[in-house]
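Researcher: Let's continue the batch. This sequence belongs to MFS transporter, and it's 405 residues. Same format as the previous ones, please.
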Amino acid sequence: MKRELWRETPFAVKLLLSTSFMMNLGFYALIPYLTLHLTGSIGWTLAMAGLVLSVRQFSQQGFAFLGGVVADAFGYKGTMVLGMAIRAVGFAMFAFCTETWEFFLAAVLSGLGGSLFDPAGSAAFAVLTPESIRKEVFAFRNVLTNIGVVGSQIVGTLLSAVDFTYLSLFAGAVFALCALIAFFLLSPIAATSTRQSIWASMVHVLKDRPFVQFTLIAMGYYYLSMQIFLTIPLLVERVTHNKGDVGIVLSAVSVFVILLQMQVSKWMEGYPHRLTLIGIGTLVMGTGLFMLSFADSLWMLLVDVFLYALGTMIAVPNLVDVVPRFAPKELVGAYYGFNGYSIAIGGSLGQIVGGWVYDQSLALQMGWLPWAICLSVGVLVAWMLYQMEHRTGQLGGGHPKIARS
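Model: Same format as before. Here are the C-alpha cells for MFS transporter:
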C-alpha cells in the first residue's frame, strides 16, 4: 500500500486490518491440521472429519444473515467482540475434546462466532473507510489475508509437530487477543441512529431483487474458489506424484497475490464497472482452472494457478466493495450477512459437486471434465454480471448506478 494511501486510512481501519491479519493467521493455522488430528489421533474417518468442518461452515454462513442484522441493530464493535470471543472459546475447546459431541459443539461455537464478527467486520470496514480509497483498502486486506495464509502454514506445521493441543490453544488465543484489541482500542461503530427491527431489516434485504440476484450469481465465483482446497491438491499429487508439491502450488497462489494484488488493483482504477470486473476475474479463474487439463509438470501447474490467482486479484476487492454500494447505510451488516449465502451455497456446491465430478472424471477417463465445468461457470458468471450491470444499471436501497465511483 502506498504511503499516502496509508496516511489517508483512518486509525480504526488500520486496527481492523491488523485484527483481520491475525484472525486469518489463527484460522488457517488450525483448520487444515484439525482434519489430520481427527483422522489421526482421534481415529475418525475422513467423512466424519468432513462433517465437523461442514458443521462449522454452516454454523457460520447459515447464520451470517442474522448476525449482520444484529450488527446493524446493536453496533458493529460489540458484535465483532462477541463473535471473536465465542470463536476463541470454540477453537480452544478443540484442545480438550474427547467425545464426539464435544467436537461438534466446538465446531458450532467456532461457526457462530464467525457469523457475528464476519459481517460486522466487513460492514465496519465499509463504513469507516473513505469511499475514495475503499477498493484499495479491500485489496490490501486481500494481501494481508494471503500473508496470513503463508504464515499460518509455518505456525501450524511447527505447533502440530509438538502437539495439536498447543495449536488449538494458539488459535483460540489469537481470537481472544483480537477481541481484547477491538474492545479496548476500537471506538463504538453504529450503523445509524435510527434502528429498524430485525425482521424489518431482513425483509428489506430480501425485497432488494438486484442484490439477491447478485448474491445468486456470486455463488459461481465461490464454486471456483473452493477448488483450491479440494480438486487442485488432488490433481497436483496425481500429476507430480509428490505430496510436497501440493504445498508448493498452494503457497504459490498466496505469494502471487501478495506480490501483485496492489498492482492489479492499480491497473483497474480507471474501470468503474465493478460487476463486470467481478465477472472478468471469475472468467480468468475459470480459464486458469481449465488449463489444468493440459498440465503435465509442476511448472505448468504453477502457470495455470497464476491465472487462477490473477482472477482472484481482479474479483475479490470488487466483491467486497460492491456490497455496500447496494446497501442503505443503516443495513450494511445485513447485506454482508445475506451475501454470505453465496459463500455457503456456492462453496458447498464447489466441495460436493466438484468432488463428485472429479471422481467421475477419473472413472470415465475424462480428466478434462471438472475443469471444463469450471470454465463454463466462469463464462456464465461473467456474462450474467455483464448483463446485470448494463441492463439494469441500478442498485437496491435507492443508491446510484453501481458503475459510479
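Researcher: Any comment?
Model: DSSP finds 16 helices and no strands in the chain.
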